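Human: I'm a chemist; would you kindly supply sequence and structure tokens for a protein?

Assistant:
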Amino acid sequence: MICVLGRKPAAKGPLQKGYENTMEAHEWMVRSTYQTEWITRRGILLWLAMYAGGLGGGLYLVSLYFNSFIGMFVSLLIVAGLKGGFHFAYLGKPLRFWRILFRPKTSWLTRGFIFVVFFVGFAAIQLMLSRWLPGTVWEILLKVLAGLMAVGVIVYTGFVLNTVKAVSLWNSPLLPLLFAMCGLMGGFGLSTVIALYGGNVDLHAAETGSRWLLVINALLIAVYLWRAVQKDETGRKSVMDQMRGEVAPAFWIGVIVLGIAAPLAVTLFSYLSGEVIPAMLIAGVVCELIGGLSVRYCLLKVGIYKPLFPRPSYLKP
């Protein structure tokens, strides 16, 4: 610790070499450093799992509103198959994952695991009741329980990141809300495709919901980034890297152009012309899904840890 914060020695030799090695090992103490655990190598699986959970949970809630059996079934497959599969593949020692169950009071990872497990269970039973005992009290009860778990599945990853106080960009109360709105937007997007194939979804209502959520998400992203810039220097660096650095193509093309502008143009065309072109609608939904993936990618990629101590004057920025 003394070597890290002390004055840089002038003499060259073994002492300075040892000092330089210490500086390299403890560089994170005085410099802002990028997190890589959740977005590089195996971390890509975690990124995909985060998005699949939000998309599946959002689709379930939207399908619940329309009472679409197909939509609820697809959402169950997304959460159980994609999210569960990606998470299981990410685990270094899968046989020890059960240990996560014993910290629900302090860990959002534990709460999230509980949300996912109970959602899959409740939704599976509810779909069986909807198939063979529709309209019963038990079916309604299971829909309510699965819906509550779906809300948890959508927002918990936002709270997981939010609790990492050392990363200014993540430590914002708006993050769970942003993830929730992105999940619902993806859910409305998929529901429009389901509506094209007779999935008991009102196409006009689904497009309207998607259109409003595109606008809400655009505003929410702008406010979120503005608050991060105002928070501290590390938050500002994260936002600037996202807009001008290596992640800029993913932000401007993935989030802004494909995720917001293109789907909004498609829905506005359908609204103003009164004409629905299936190929164009599907293309808009694909762009919307790419945008949702890009939002999470950018947030994870530019997550920067704040330094523990002020940077010494002799260190370059």
Notes: DSSP finds eleven helices and two strands in the chain. The first strand starts at residue 33 and ends at 34. Residues 35-305 form a domain with the Formate dehydrogenase/DMSO reductase fold fold (CATH 1.20.1630.10).
